[in-house]
């Protein structure tokens, strides 16, 4: 135009930048494993894990095992909280949907309760800080944990002999990636066109 060096209708902004990334904690599919120590949360909530420094971490990965002391631990050896100890020689382990842990001891037929698994939830789970190995830490953005028995106060239930699989739809993710790539190509061509227009305007002033 006569009053500016930019072509008519062109607006130059400051670009874009990444503010944050968020994890998607929507329910994943449930897969049966047959392992009595595998637990899947169906609904909202996280297992509570005691870290070596005494802090609590949180996870939805319920692939647990029993250590030499009979404690229920993660694959990395971190104990589940509240602590659950399986007596040596227990013939079977039963974990209810409400997190009640019971075992049948030698010489007995009736199960004995040995612990209670509790879950934690947050006002803003996407604000949890990733720690690695499927562990998450409380942060100012997540808020304080609200704990309780599975199935109470909006918390999900626990499924024994099951694990939660990924909640990512691979096919849909590929489609989204292709669409994003095409949008990028279109924007690149638009930028190249604007650059040519600016160059033309500069050379023909």
From TrEMBL:
Native organism: mine drainage metagenome
Listed name of the protein: Flagellar basal-body rod protein FlgG
Annotated Flagellar hook protein FlgE/F/G-like D1 domain residues: 40-103
UniProt keyword Membrane, yes or no: no
NCBIfam families registered for this protein in UniProt: FlgEFG_subfam, flgG_G_neg
UniProt-listed SUPFAM superfamilies: Flagellar hook protein flgE
Keywords, alphabetical: Cell projection, Cilium, Flagellum
Annotated Pfam families: Flg_bbr_C, LlgE_F_G_D1
Renumbered residue ranges of the record's region Disordered: 138-160
Record's compositionally biased regions (Polar residues): 141-150
Domain Flagellar basal-body/hook protein C-terminal: 160-203
InterPro entries attached to this UniProt entry: Flagellar_FlgE/F/G (IPR020013), Flg_bb/hook_C_dom (IPR010930), FlgE/F/G-like (IPR037925), FlgG_G_neg (IPR012834), LlgE_F_G-like_D1 (IPR053967)
A GO CC term attached to the entry: bacterial-type flagellum basal body, distal rod
Family designation: Belongs to the flagella basal body rod proteins family.
